[in-house]
Amino acid sequence: MIYKMQPLHTNNPAVIRWVGEMTALCQPDNLVWCDGSEEEKKKLTEEAVAQGILIKLNQEKLPGCYYNRSKPDDVARSEDRTFICTASAEEAGPTNNWSALKEMYRKLHALCAGGMRGRTLYVVPYLMGPPGSSLTKVGVELTDSLYVVLSMRIMTRMGKVAYEHLGDGEDFNRGLHCMLEADPTRRYIAHFPEDNAIISTGSNYGGNVLLGKKCYALRLGSWLARKQGWLAEHMLILSAESPEGEKTFVTAAFPSACGKTNFAMMVPPAHFAGWKIRTVGDDIAWMKPGPDGRLYAINPEAGYFGVAPGTNSKTNPNATATISHDTIYTNVALTPDLDVWWEGKTKEPPAQLTDWKGRPWTPGSKEPAAHANSRFAAPIRNNPACAPEVDDPNGVPISAIIFGGRRGTTMPLVYQAFNWIHGVYVGATMGSETTAAATGAVGKVRRDPMAMLPFCGYNMGHYLNHWIRMRKKIPVPPRIFHVNWFRRDEQGNFLWPGFGENMRVLKWIVERTRGRADAQEAPLGWVPGPRDFDLAGMKDFNPEKLAQAQAINMEEWRREVLGQDDLFFELYAYLPKELMLQRELLVARL
Ligand code: GTP
Ligand code: SPV
Ligand code: MN
Asked: Is 81 helix (H, G, I), strand (E, B) or coil?
């Protein structure tokens, strides 16, 4: 096949050689080398609309916004089809799907052979991280999906900037995405950490195919981080600026669809006038000890791939502004005038909609109008509360790490770990109810260490050891906390109002890291004393309700500790002894 001559935008021999090999394998009809320019975006967007891949939304209401509807069986990450491919199964560990490297290459090369016939292969160079940072990494994704190209353009720093960073080097992630009609029987998300390579087939859904995100920044990132002595985590990064102008940076690891984007964009209630919360990142943090002994974090991403349902101007005004322009929506519902809608966007649903499957929908319809995992992809700079530090190559110094899951029972609103090792135990034993972000059952409590169960690219036991060992490399470690926004009362109502009101929890955390807030020793850790948790100005909330949200129920904790044992049993051969000791200490305190 001879391809139409086009500027390559790079002379890097390794890139050119690899693209040659992959084109020979996939045999696309056309080959397009992307440069990330505005003209290219315009042209590719028009092509996507012409091919029916994107629908142009109402440009008066949503300037620059487009809509994509996926295949109904390709709507979330496929954890059961996600593989870590290493020489030995032990490297992948008991919580990952493992496949022998050679075998997976053989299988996927066979699937991809001729897999792009009649299609166009796009070469998408991108950076994870701000230009100039020592943590920043280069990836090149080859994809036959225009939706992926345009989404990667939002989610990463895509284009020539990546080739500039790479220079003549060979150190870039080789990502191949072959859509194969998004056929679930041909769906594999395969990671080859030893080769810094990813092959994704048979899907066109976000986390499966935007390879810079979960695949590179988390699975391969975590592998590299362990080798090189840093941390690649499923964490938001936010900046909390006090009325006095003092900035405190905090990260938080909550599992998928458990509140990272909302917390990172939080708008404090009126009572906290003068406090400014700004977003550095909403999903991924790369963290490395800095010269002053503190832990510094960058957000490798350049966009938000956020959950649409539940997002509205009350719960998250910053997100509402962020997605009001230049956004790609996936699997939400459409109004007759091509505006978007999802459950929780407005109290009253519109009288008439087209649902995410393209069918007519009315408020009487049985199924939700938008898919529960419908999403938006929007540029990071769209956020009115975007932190100025997002492009700082040095990152931001982290004072607190917060762990948290979605727990209807058992877990109190907030507590602080006694120290780093105890904090690692708190993170390691995190549980959370499963959500629609991954295919499979929803609402089942599973152990999700550090919210990394689906994203740790190597043996989870080794990962927990890495966390324990990192303490020695961080002379001034962040304080560690645990939160739960999702505890319910007997009637099933949330005990805590959440969203902006989470500022009250955040303020206690900030003050704790500054040594200014009081705390009481409790079985789980430090908890706010009655004077140091600000409830002023709250409607329908009082100290009794706070006590209910903070209560420790012995029956529930008996079950909780036994639930933790399931994970410990699975990881037993690799588990740091520190964590066993922490378990004993917890039982003793209970
Ligand atoms: P991923 O993008 O999948 O990693 O999700 P995420 O962790 O960023 O979660 P996100 O902030 O998008 O929230 C997921 C869902 O939880 C949305 O439907 C939110 O409305 C809801 N949610 C977020 N924060 C809160 C909260 O404080 N209280 C309650 N009750 N719900 C919340
Ligand atoms: C998650 O599931 O944690 C997400 C969405 O952030 S996806 O990128 O699809 O994985
Ligand atoms: Mn996520």
From this structure: helix
CB 219 less than 6 A from any atom of ligand 2: no
Residue with tokens 């908890």: 527
CA dihedral 192, 196, 202, 205 (to 10 degrees): 120
Is residue 74 lining ligand 2, measured as CB closer than 6 Å? no
CA of 272 from ligand 2 middle (Å) equals 31
**Helices assigned H by DSSP within 219-361:** 221-228, 260-264, 317-322
Residue in 26, 112, 215, 258 annotated catalytic: 258
Q: Is pTM, for the whole model, over 0.85?
A: yes
Q: How far is Cα 225 from Cα 260, in angstroms, rounded to an integer? A: 22
135: region left, alpha or beta (phi > 0 left; psi from -120 to 50 alpha) = alpha
Residue 197 CB neighbours (<10 A): 21
**Among 348, 309, 505, 521, which residue's Cα sits nearest to residue 422?**
521
Strand 157-158 versus strand 188-192 pairing type: unpaired
Q: How far apart are CA 381 and CA 93, in angstroms?
A: 38
Smallest CA separation from ligand 2 atom 7, residue? 207
- Say what the pLDDT of residue 2 is: 79
Contact 274, 242 (CB under 8 A): yes
Distance (angstroms) between ligand 1 centre and the Cα of 481 equals 18
Q: Could you read off the pLDDT of 432-474 as tens digits, one per residue? A: 999 999 999 999 999 999 999 999 999 999 999 999 999 999 9
Which tens digit of pLDDT belongs to each residue from 31-81?
A: 999 999 999 999 999 999 999 999 999 999 999 999 999 999 999 999 999
Q: State the Cα–Cα distance between residues 97 and 79, nearest whole angstrom.
A: 9
- The dihedral built from the CA positions of residue 207, 209, 215 and 216, taken in this order, carries a sign that is negative
Atom of ligand 1 nearest to the CA of 498: 27
Q: For residue 283, report the distance from its CA to the centre of ligand 1, in Å.
A: 11
Ligand 1 pocket list (CB less than 6 A): 254, 256-262, 282-283, 306-307, 309-310, 315, 437, 485-486, 494, 498-499, 502
| 34 counts as catalytic | no
The answer for residues whose C-beta is within 8 angstroms of residue 448's C-beta and 6 or more apart is 255, 405, 430, 431, 432, 454
Q: Which residues are within 8 A (CB) of 210 and not within 5 positions of it... i.e. 6 or more apart?
A: 148, 151, 152, 155, 305
Q: pLDDT for 114-169, tens place per residue?
A: 999 999 999 999 999 999 999 999 999 999 999 999 999 999 999 999 999 999 99
